[in-house]
User: Fold these one by one.
Assistant:
Number 1:
Amino acid sequence: CVLCGRTDDCPAKYGEKRTYVEYNLTVHYYCLLMSSGIWQRGEEGEGVDGFLITDIRKEVNRAAKLKCNICRKKGASIGCVAPKCKRSYHFPCGIQRECIFQFMEDFRSYCWEHKPVQKIPDKESRGTSQCTICLDLVEQLPKYTILKSPCCKNAWFHRECLQYQALSAGIFFFRCTVCNNKDKFQKEMLRMGIHIPEKDASWELEENAYQDLLQCYQHCDIRRCLCKKGRDYNEPDSKWEIKRCQCCGSRGTHLACSSLKSWEQNWECVECRSIFAKSGKYSKRKKRSMVTSEKTDGTTCLLEEPSPKCPRQSSGSQCNFLLQSPKIMCQNNLSPCSHLELPTSNRVTMSLSPLMSNRNWSLSKKQLRKQRREVSDILKELKLQVNTKTTRLNINAENIWNSALKGFRQRNFSPTNTIEIKFIKCKNRSKTDSSAASRHHFFQLLMLHLQNSSLFEGSSAKNLSLDFQAIKENLYFEAGKMIAVSLVHGGPSPGFFSKTLFNCLVYGPENVKPALEDVADVDVAQTIKMIKYANSLSSLQSTVHDCYEFLAAAGCLRPITALCDKNALVNDILIHHVIKRIISPLESFRQGLKTLGVLEKMQMHPDAFSSILCHKPERLSAEMICDLFTIHSSSDVNKVEGADFWMGYLQDVESGESVVTLEDILLFGTGSFSIPPIGFDPAPTIRFLHIRYPVGNRLLNCLELPITKTYEQFKNKMDFTIRNTLRVERE
């Protein structure tokens, strides 16, 4: 190299070594970049990446007069940029002496005495941790060879590991290996001398790197394969079609080899079944598959019915009935439509997602509470992304949607910033309200508006509607984003999602089969009912003829040759109207819910999130309020009956023997009408003090209650203060 004089060819350390025979020139790329007296004065294709050959010659002549402060040889082209520092050195010598070279902006260099160092707070624990790249142990000390992540508290790396990772990942994929932070992480690594090349990742540049992933597993692994053409034979839409394991996808079976009557039936390989059996989950899954595979009469219908001889199953029964393919019915020489001729009163139909076929949505209160506690922990984990930087939203409560939309779309809005709400043109907000209470009230008004907006349709359980103006203005994305932000920032949950909408978000629309109650349009619902309950082939054909234009527009026209064809037709109409018709709004809504990682957590914990998205908040009870508030008492209060008075008062309020409600008590103490899914921060507390009247400290979520001699005094003071305080606020 004409600049450092070394013959080493180590691209990871010194950059690519390039030789230009026509100019009789060899140079390391990093030596050229970091040299102090040269700039890229040419175009990208000129000279050496924009460095003109004449400029390189001049830089070599300039460096020939400078002695390296490390090896004491001439040719030191790099100087320390610290004021008054006159040290010069070769690039390899600087690496050896642990100098810092910043591959950004002006390509500054710092000698071993003036180099930047990472500042570690004294209170942080010192010890050893694991480098998350090479997985070897690393000392938690700020040294040249060891770097700390700026975004994760206990993430430490070897410098060499980080440099290799950066060269491989490039500027588009180099990020913290623990939290995936990109901007903050790259900025700190560049400051500490890690070179991040402006190129795509190495794995993206490799030709056909992902070719293996495009190959589907096509092999029958059943011990006794029945196919005469071999285990690898696969004929779609026949009994010799290969079905892959629904769990791992790495095992397969011919439909005939496992007695599967339809490709839509679920199948699990032996390995996955054994895993579920050990975890205790297989018994539930086995019950689910028995409904589809074990039929007493060998028939398979679109709307499966219990035998008339069997007692009718209750709506909460564990034995739900699944949608099946109509193709199988017509292939059997049995009577596929006999069940459909039962009276309507004897029908028990439930059409859920294949993945949700046995899920019981009538959850008990105990289950709901358990799942909501799980959601609270998940949301608290997501809230760790929120920083202390605040973004103020000026909200007009009388025009909640437009002011919220304006705030969410302002340039400085970030979901990771702490949101501060200021109500304008609103005189009934208490000046004592905490920022959390104002924020909760804002999100409560916003969720109420969304529930009644044109973006959703239905009565209580809602699906997405088709609003072309909303699609044009990207409002479905904004709605999803607002719901995600509300959940993480301490607001209420929507609570109005239908089962079908929730399943589409979590499992994907292709895995969901909607029900008749999902159809909000009265005319469409009536059309479906007429087709569904047609009791003869002639009446079915007449109904289809009357609805010809509607079916043609929906793309649901099909030949009607048997009464059982109505089942497939009903299924087609439901899928078109409830799912395919709103596929664009659904995808936009899903993208909005990805904000702060909410959708990902929904997909990981579907049961827990369904408890808050598909169910309204549980009505407050004395027990819930008692559990919510923690009593803090001093030594002189232990002797009084304050705690007993408090619990007795809650019982009286719940039974209606007070002028206030449990919601009033919660509002008085916290400024919120309901308990948010994430819970309160700080946690609500109660203090018994020698004061005349109770005080609701909403900044601390603290109820300061008076110490009284009798329960009647306590009750009268509570009723009087809470009722009058809230009345004044409302007025």
Note: The mean pLDDT is 82.
Number 2:
Amino acid sequence: MFHIFQYRPLRLITQTSLSSMYLKLMLSRPVAFAQIWKSWFSSHSLLGNKNIILMGPPGAGKTTIGRIVGQKLDCPVIDIDDDVLETTWNMSVSEKLQNVGYEEFLEEEGKALLNFSASGSVISLSGSNPMHAAGMQHMKKNGIVVYLDVPTAVIMSRLKSMAVDRIVGLSAGNSLKDILQFRKPFYKRWYDIRVFCGEDVAAEVVAEKVLDAVKRYQDSELETFISTRSSRSGRSIEKDSRKYFSDVVVQGLAPDGGLFVPERPLPKFTAGEWQGLIEATYIERAEVILERCIHPADIPASKLAEIIGTAYGENFSCSKVAPVRHLAGNQFLLELFHGPTASFKDFALQLMPRLFASCIPRSCNYLVLVATSGDTGSAVLDGFSRLHDTDKQRIAVMNFFPEDGVSPIQKSQMIGCQKENAWSVGVKSDFDFCQTAIKQIFTNSDFTGFLTVEYGTALAAANSINWARLLPQIVYHASAYLDLVHQGIIPFGSPVDICIPTGNFGNILAAFYAKMMGIPIRKCICASNENNVLTDFIRTGIYDLRGRKLISTFSSAVDILKSSNLERYLHLIANEDGQLVTQLFNQLENQGHFQLRKDLLEKLQQDLVAGWCSEEDCLAAIHSVYSTTGYILDTHTAVAKVVADRMQDRTCPIIISSTAHYSKFAPAILRALRIAEINQNPLSQLHLLSSYSALPPIHWGLLETLKKTGNGDHQVCAADMGVLMHHVETLIQNHFM
């Protein structure tokens, strides 16, 4: 067996030598002792007996970066090509490849890895090592695999400057770019940590990133979550109140009634890192962004990449997943309706169920509760119904929606999306009642405790109060900006405005988070319909529900008066003052209003502007845009379009979030297009719309769902907490017992 335990002499520090060193240095130079001890302890605790294994394509800089990392840690450095393969074969790697050919070379290379052993070292793999499964499994047993993810364009440029014209797998029928793309899945299979290198940056900078990433990997305590209502003693929070990502995904709502937020700021990407994602696909962008937000102790990076690939792969009808389309002038549409249920909710709810299944313990069943004002319901039902059969046996979902507060097509869709582990219940009330009822169920410890003891079942939430619902939305706001750069509309660094139809404040909060992470968003424009409580609040600082009644509008998904995610934003601008947030939202609950301090209102108005749209203006916008462009907006996007027209100053592009497909709101769309007689059958309405040959075409998934639905049944109940709790218990009995 080929062993390398040290590449240069290492000092073995025993208890005796430590004591001797301690006495001498403390007597002479106590500061020097502290520095030496700190340096030794840092490298020892970082590596221990583990190896840092650098992996990536040819030209990623593995050898150079490995040497720098080794120097910083004062540990052995091993280059597989130079120190293992060529030593074993007694010839150069290129000679071996030429002698035995591609397939035999991979096998010989893998055998060399299997016969190799090292400890406490920095190891630079060859570019083709990850293609040998057994060899990589052997290496991972005692190492942390760091994937140096360098954009393909940068790699191509480097290899050209190095005059590299031959790598493993390159033949007359394959280009260098083809080989690099072919290898990516192999790298993604094995890595523990991704270090995204962005543009062509110095090796010293990348080495520091590697060290930071390894430290993060080994210390999950760095990334904890707190409640928006957590009280601080000085600047500290009780350790017991801190949660990890896997905890907050499962729990949804904090025990004190607040919402979970990261204790530390979200990671900020450099301009170079963002620019490195300009050529990337949506899935690749999602992987890089979400890996930085989800600690690998909660979900390993390679597992997360697999989940993202499944969620945004075949389930979306557009290969770009979230394409950006020019509408007119400086306005662009971010199309968020290409998922299976035709709304932006699919971006979170194709991903969140898989994250949830990865985080929950195997010893307990879970019932996921969700309230919807329209689009969330079908997205939740569809997402959880796509889980593996073994997961569906232990995870069920119940969706509450206002029976008379959604469009006929939305209701048909929710009925059609019911599966063996997913059910819908219509409630004779509005969305605010449904959402409040779920919060009350979660905070009813007697009821939740009874379900756990009696049925072995815990409750979880899938509304946007769940952090795993909010996090994926950051990706599409960042991706939209990068697409504008990629299309040559703006250079990177130029600002954009974003206008979003807003009800529960989650979507616009995700845009603000993208801004915090380094995307140059100037203003987030909040677009309301006639339920314009948010517009009034952003303009005045007064959140006032007194005397307000919910108005049923054409844009039902934003028919909301209590915006849950606003609490997260206020917690942020109030410097995480949980006591203030508790005071404000208790006052809202008990008195129906609250008012922000002047300094907080000034902060808010630096980030947000707001406007609202009447029903007449909404329909007029749909008609006007179709008449001039042939494009049909849905009712929510029309609300945002009207507000964008009023609020923008035309000094920069504005991205309007198109949050749903117009097919879901066919009666309103047909009315806007001035069709005199409208058939009440949802399927007939869609067929009529399809005859217009408009852009975008009728949504494929929605049409298929309605064809299957027919006269499907669903349960309807009164707006009574006792009745809702009975439905919850009955479902648990039927599914899990």
Note: Residues 1-44 have pLDDT under 50 and may be disordered.
Number 3:
Amino acid sequence: KMTQQMRDLQLAQARKPPGPSSPNAAKRLYRNLSGKFRVNYTSFDEGSLVGRGEKEKLRKSYLFQSNAALFEAVELQDLDRVQEMLKHYSPEELDLNTPNSEGLLPLDIAIMTNNAPIARALLQAGAKESPHFVSLESRSLHLSTLVREAEQRVNELMAQVVNEAPNADCSDKEKQLKAWEWRFRLYKRMKAGFEHARVPDAPSSVHLSVASSSSLQVTFWEPLSVNSAIVTKYKVEWSCSPTFSPLLGEAVIDKLKDLHFTIQGLVSGTAYHIRVSAYNMKGWGPPQASTPPFAIPSNWREYDGRAPRRRGQAEALDHLLGQVKTVHQHCICHEPCKNQPQSRKHSVSKSLKHLFHPGSKFLKTLKRGLYLTAIFYKDDNILVTHEDQIPVVEIDDTYSCLLMQDFLWLTKVSCMWDEILWLRQCVTVSQSSCSCILQTRFKMLLAISQMQGLLGIQDLGQVFFEPIKDKQGNILIVTLKEVKTNQTFESVRWVPICKLQTSRKSVSSPEEPTALDTLLISLQDKLAYHQRSSHALSPGLYLGYLKLCSAVDQIRVLVPEQLPNILCHAKIRSNPNISREEWEWLQKMASVEEPVPTEPEADRPQNPLFQELQVAIKELMTLVNIPLQEAKDFRLYSQEVLDFGDQVSFLLLLPPSDDVCTAPGQNNPYTPRSGFLTLPLQIFELGEEG
């Protein structure tokens, strides 16, 4: 009962200092408390003089203070302080959903005082309404009781203050009176807010899209008017009937960080109707039907029953590699290898302990030849030898012209660093053919094995897409690997990149720098490329621009510098799925050879995908510096949708057939602005696979 709750509150007040005498006093209180409970719990280590029991009591005291401070901040409508506490402390640390002695939660106070910013901040953090309010009547009765008992307490304290002679006890009573007067006003404001509020309007918009062959995605927006009470949850309902009778299912969404919901487990080919309604403390508002009014779960593959392109490919390749190993087992001579890598079970921290002893075969300077260097970096630091040198090993001192096919072969080898010893043994046996190509590749494997043995680590990272060449006849192949461990290593030094660049004495002129000098000068650019090439796209459907250019020994593909493992692209929408109906529309457009949709047409039906494509094409053409009128001759690749997992898919935009690949010497009238690269096609394929 509320009377008993208020008695408990009075007893609690008798045991602790009096409550705040005014809003300013309350503000000082919770600021002091919030400063006190901002402690470093790691300081309570095993060596502390405080016992474990005392530690737990101290921790609970801090948590209690943090909870009280949060209530005070909400009551005083201090948005900055509420956001600060929600940022630094978890809901558990704040006891976010534990009622106070009045049976209220912080969210209850925020919504009943109609403080929308604080209420939204609390909802984003996972705050709930009090479970005691099972009906409008129970909430109204609870508020009336709070107001009545607060008023009664104010009257009692006022009588005591008037009748008693001035003394210390009277001063305490005056403080209590001010605190209760302030709380009485708060409760009256909460009661008035509740009585004034009405149920919310329907959500302003509900968008329905096909997420897969068994699911639909519902995205909705807040009501235009919440009628003086913030919305705290939404309800999504679905049915096969436009009258929603019978109702097939419903879901209540009380996590409002993202206003969308995916309905799973639906039947492919069946039409479903969707509606969404909003809820506030006065109840559920009217539902809003979706646009379009119904949708059919499907996927573009159902158009012709096509299986996923990559289904079983990884397993098949693993099986094929196993077969090749089995066939070559009798050829392996198990020769002793001085530079045999350590077991892969060794951690990076252990394997790097014995890095770079004085007898190692890392090179300080380059002579005319082909070399391999491994860049290991962490933040702004780089791993160097005990002589402050980047680790470099020799591949071939007589090889002054690196063939592109050999380099591309090495990039493929980088996908199986663990198998270098086996590959080397196989190539050793195969040298009877005296092939120059095999000899060169065998030397590459030897250099890789040497680097792995000296470093004590097998994974050398990603091969940079372009070797470094100088006029002295040196060619430097670069691998890049980010070390994310925070451990320190014995006999190894992490050197800041800027310090390494400034301290190294160049042995070449600025006009003709050596490959090592060029590496140091461009090191930040290469590290940036390595980090960007591992970035992933956010989920969605994208429009990619496929533009190739050919050279004598390779084909290169245009990519953005900021995301070099993906084609130039523009996002079409957040839903990656193409439905069967959408794919049928694309096929019809391709069959009649319609131009790419760059401008809206008055007599064309308003297809959502059509509109989304128009926006994406304009954005993409601007990005690659092609006039929009030229896009009318472009084509959408209609053979398939390129799926990259379950979250990202691509439609391809192709130039006219004669311009897809620019030949050597062919003029390209529209060159992209800065911010693009052309990667060898094989390098791009490896990056895309990763």
Note: The chain has four domains: 56-196, 207-298, 360-534, 540-591+606-688.
Number 4:
Amino acid sequence: QEKSSRLSAALFGEDCEISHDQLYELLKYAALGRCHKATKPRWCRIYHQSHLAGVVVIVLCEMSQLHFYKFYLQFKHLRKVFRHRFTLTPSANFLASLCGEGGNPKPQNNAQGLTSSSSECVPKTSDLQYDPIIQKYGEKKQGLTSYTLTLEEQRKNDYPMKGSPGCKDYVYTECDEPRTDSSPLFGLDCEMCLTARGNEVTRVSLVDAQGQCLMNELVKPKSTIWNYRTRYSGITKQMMLPVKTRLPDIQTRLKKMLPRDAVLVGHSLNGDLQALQMIHPSVIDTSLLFARNEGRRFKLKFLAKAVLGKEIQSEETLGHDPAEDARAALELAQFFIEQGPAKVAELNLEMLLTTDKLAETSQNKAASQPQGCSIQKQLNGTPDLPKPCFLDCLQVTGQKPLLLGRQELDSSGLQRSNTSTPNKQILQRALEDVPLSTFSIIQFTLGPEYVASHLLAGLCEKVRRKLTDMLTIYAGPFEESFCLKSVKKEFRRCGPIQCLTVVTETNQPYVCVQYEVLEAAQLAVESLNGAEVAGSCIKVQRPVTAAMLDCDVLIKELELDVENEGVIYVAGLKKSLTETDLQEEFSQLKDLETLFLPKDLQTGKHRNCCFLKFQKSQSAVDALEVINGRNVKGSKLRSRNALASGHLWRWIQQMNHSNGKQGGNGSYETREQLSDCEQGLRREVKKLDRHIKKIYRRLQNNTLCVVLFPGLN
């Protein structure tokens, strides 16, 4: 659900099932866009992708469509806000393609370490021509002016420029003298805190070409600070209390300090200049200088370690040191200029990054395994490399993606397992960090007591029984000699019948009708209760069981579900009518958008009902009045508001045709235990729904948010 309603997905009925590749396609295009050659999704449309503020994927681990409909009433916010829902086709592991779980074949080269000089790490000279650094700069050494960003590169990477929208009040450094290869380099880095206005600069560092720190100032923002982001910025409330320096003071000092031919160096420097609200004409961006394929970017922490052999942004220190980051970016640029593109390409940074990730993954696995198991794996050789994942494609923003839950990213962008963090703590971090990230994956988990196979089997059986009861009606009493054929004909006008049997245990005969769709059963209750059928005035009702006591509430909620808005159900059609016939028959209905004619999953034949989707809710209301008041080709039609969306309809069909386990064989103790677990699970679901509500409210406008129910398999 996108907050400005810019996502359009015209899938309906049986088309509501999508593959994981299609979802992957949507997420990649939303995150990267056309400028990074991401393919437009064919099954839906994102309007104004460039305006997207971010993408958020919330994963409810171990939960599936079974949980959604078992606890449908508990998912209040999820049902209210998220308009588009799709069934995902089975996949080996969709989360693996997002988060990088699993592995792929071993590389041909085994690098000896992040700073190894082994010849095995060095690519052959013939391979260098395919290196993105060589393709961009060539092999020869060049002066620094060859590595400054062009105006087109600055525009493409969102650098503040003269005349650009939103830069009207920005301060120009007035460094207008022509640059030469001997122009002075200055490293710049800023740290930001979250305020009522968004990200505002709170610390600025500037270093000269010799690494001397010329400025390391705290800055008091205009607006109240909401989140100090101490884990990243290193800034605390106590540090900011005595600060009087404001942004205009910093802008003035920078203008005075920078020579007229100064070249600024930084890692994703566009973000720093935007925060400073300053325009500088000549910059070297090390996140772009050390080029990668597909627009990806290396992290500053990784480059400092791999190229300079320096450790920065240590986990042991509180937040980043902007002077340290500015100095690292400056030294990286100096190394590139002095050594030249060929020497940099020979470092084989992609291989070093893969090796670094592999080492991190192996350490995490070893830490969580018995010592003997770890030793045995070492004896067996190097484990498989992590599978290339979606997160690795998101370096284009210059910011690391946010991954919270079962897997998390450390400050260097490497994954580490984290299975013990409670959902409440994950929520707290999400509320703080998600609004600051352009791509986030948040994974909430259920406790181990809620994923036991016997509990899931029990839930599945309960849902199957409840759906069966909701599809079933009892009607009667009838005369002893009533005409079963005419009764069946009357009830079939409400929709396709799964089976019809005569109940003989009562004093007078009744019939039990099980329909294939929820709307048919509800239509029978609404239109035939108290009606005269086969010469008898009958009562029509659903089975009365403990699980059915809230049936009326559930039916009402299904009818009001945003996914069913503007959708009506029509029954009593002749089976000989094709979709083309129906399109022509209903063409006079105003604002008709889509028609869905269900088919039997086994035979493929059309049923005697259809669903109509209208562009406007009022048009659907008007259509109900028209259809319920007329005859079509001699067949009286009946219609009502839709209850079951396409994916639910398919799921009901599958449940009807599945051979679910029959209940009634468990002991009293087992049933009691299941009931206790179910009550606990219901409470957990309510909490998760509130978590999603809180995260959603914290999102910026124009944020695409996806919630996944991946199930156990």
Note: The longest strand covers residues 185-195.
